[in-house]
Amino acid sequence: MYPPEERERRDPRPIRIPNLMIVQMVDRFYEKVRAHSELGPIFDEAIGDNWDKHLPIMYRFWSSVLNTSGQYSGNPMRVHMQIKQTVIPENFGHWLSLFQETLEELFSDDDVAFIFKKAENIAQSLSLGMFYNPASPHAMPVPTGTANS
Ligand code: HEM
Fold this sequence. Notes:
Blueprint: H1 4-10, H2 19-35, H3 39-47, H4 51-67, H5 76-82, H6 90-106, H7 109-131
Helix pairs in contact: 2-3, 2-4, 2-6, 6-7
């Protein structure tokens, strides 16, 4: 047998959410996004005909977030700051409800809760980066988390 540290190096990280499910989740989610009256145009403008590039980026992103696979190397904050003029804080609520709807179609309750929490945390930090203005506290989006519970 290997010493514990060697065993850790050799064993791959456990996969909580299989890649095939991540692909289905991303594909289904962006189908909904593209059909959404407010989110659709934002994505159309930014992505245009480049969905074949965007979707694989999102597969890698979620594989990194959910399975700690290290497949994604990018800077979501920078990308979202670039589209900030076309987004309003309420769009985060739209984004999260389509995402939750997608998760409920595909995953068990436990996995829905696990994945949704990750999305909610990232949404909160992106929306703070995009919209937080210390001089204007009323402009802050209402957090969707469970701060008071
Ligand atoms: C109001 C909500 C949101 C809108 C309107 C939005 C819109 C977009 C758009 C248009 C792009 C493509 C930009 C481009 O390639 O030029 C993008 C990329 C991306 N979004 Fe969002 N997004 C939202 C929320 C989120 C959330 C909550 C997450 C994560 C949980 C997320 C993760 C990402 C990632 C990882 C990318 C790719 C970044 C890269 O190219 O490396 N987005 N988003």
